[in-house]
Write a structure and sequence with these properties.
This protein has 214 residues and is of the alpha+beta class. It has a single domain, classed as 3-Layer(aba) Sandwich (L-fuculose-1-phosphate Aldolase). The chain is 39% helix and 15% strand. It has seven helices and eight strands. Strands 4-3-2-1-5-8-7-6 form an eight-stranded mixed sheet, with helices on both faces. The chain starts with a helix and ends with a helix. Bound molecules: ligand LB5GJZVW and zinc ion (ZN). Its EC number is 4.1.1.104. GO terms for molecular function: aldehyde-lyase activity; metal ion binding. Keywords: Carbohydrate metabolism, Lyase, Metal-binding, Zinc. One of its GO terms (cellular component) is cytosol. InterPro entries: Aldolase_class_II_sugar_metab, Aldolase_II/adducin_N, Aldolase_II/adducin_N_sf, OtnC.
Length: 214
Amino acid sequence: MPREEARLREEMVQTGAAFRALGLAPGTSGNLSARLDDGWLMTPTNVGLGDLVAERISKLDWDGNLLSGDKPTKELVLHRAFYENRPGTGAVVHLHAPHAVALSCLEGLDAESCIAPITPYFVMRVGRLPLLPYFRPGDPAMGEAVGRVAPRQACVLLANHGPVVSAGSLALARAAMEELEETARLALLLHGRPVRVLGEAEIQPLRETFGADW
Ligand SMILES: O=C(O)[C@@H](O)C(=O)COP(=O)(O)O
Ligand SMILES: [Zn+2]
């Protein structure tokens, strides 16, 4: 096995365990993927992210055919939507992180960006967070909807389901996901209160300096 593939498998195991330890991956929810030179690694379906085994992680070719490992996540279409529509995507993470899931169940969210720019770090790590409609998990239509926004947005929130984050690497996707969850917690804490959000003049230099995915 190529050294980079072996390294990525280990990184997926460690990342899954970290999400579980943080309480962001309850039960068998959530899935991770990472890009290889000749396809993708994806977490198997129905396996807790805290219980991943490196050799059993699914390896797929660019057509989505299983090359080795266990049956892949049912959200294959969701992950592919980012890889195929967002150049530079090196990893995709979907979790049922509790505050982000709670937020995804609220009525009346701004579908263009359902968390306001309340802190600079959210702007730098996540940027805008479009809310997509509810889809049954694994629904190919969800992949199509994600594919339409992926060229412009690195992260989305699926209504009544949870967040999906793409980034250049698994480490960056993890950082963005943790920031998204923390900001969702803050947004819920602040819900119903008058909130000062960052203005365009404050956001612009953050975009320029950190190249967030806007
Ligand atoms: O919500 C779902 O069913 C999936 O999105 C999920 O989080 C876990 O599915 P698998 O990756 O197929 O286990
Ligand atoms: Zn899910």
